TrEMBL record:
GO terms for cellular component: plasma membrane. It holds the Pfam family ABC2_membrane_2. It comes from Candidatus Nephthysia bennettiae. The chain crosses the membrane at residues 20-45, 65-90, 111-130, 150-169, 181-203, 260-282. It comes from the Bacteria. GO terms for molecular function: ABC-type transporter activity. This is ABC transporter permease subunit. The keyword Transmembrane helix applies. Keywords: Membrane, Transmembrane, Transmembrane helix.
Amino acid sequence: MPAILTLAKLTVWEASRRKLLIALVALTVIIIAGTTFLMSRLWTIPADHGRPPSEVEVRLIASQLLVVITFMFAAVLALSSVMVAAPSISADVESGLVLSMLSRPVRRADLVIGKWLGLGVLVIIYAGGAGTLELIGVDLTTGYVPPHPISLLAYVAGMGIILLTLALFVSTRLSGMTGGIIGLAAYFIAWVGGILGGVGVALNNDSLRHSGTVISLLVPTDQLWRGAVYSMEPASILATARTAGRALAGNPFLVTDPPAYAFLAWTVVWVLGLLALTIWSFRVREV
């Protein structure tokens, strides 16, 4: 355990020195400032007959804008998680650094778990910090607070954990560039698969519905995204959407129900299982 914690701290320290992380933080601050200003301008949008919008109208618009903003943050987090994790093992192997690390009393499993923990901490800090600042900005300018803010942040962080775990696994066998491409492709395939599954529900098409389910099980990021959307929707929007029945099931920005507990349990099993597979893959690799 001491070796794992030491490697986790080293991973956090190394990642914090990268220009990618510095650029990510700067970009995030700019985005939060820009979106906060955008939210503050909602009060100036003329409503019927030129009257100013009511508090209810502003909060309703803010709730839908927040979904789009969160999607942007989720995409940035996905990109960052993959690009940081993809070269984390392969780069050390190619440079020979891993040999000096493993020559000490450090097991390969310790190295993998340490890197995973360190990167996971960074993902959680980013998702929690950026998400909290964005929610504070929305609250201060419009008075809107999502019904389930903690769940929202947890779902977004979970997406990052899934993708970094996948990228770390690929990193045990392939180069960082290849791993990054695979990770991002998996993210977008999962998102499209979720839309296909929803369209299958709307059209009562079993083939599309089952295809979406299979893709969601293979890469569970889309279902967590839908959980994040559900956490942001006010009760009035949910009530209206539910009256439409399954017709809106294909809309990835409007979700009427959270992910099932069974699926959340599967997501935990998926992450731990892939982490175990990553340990095995690195253990049998010649370095």
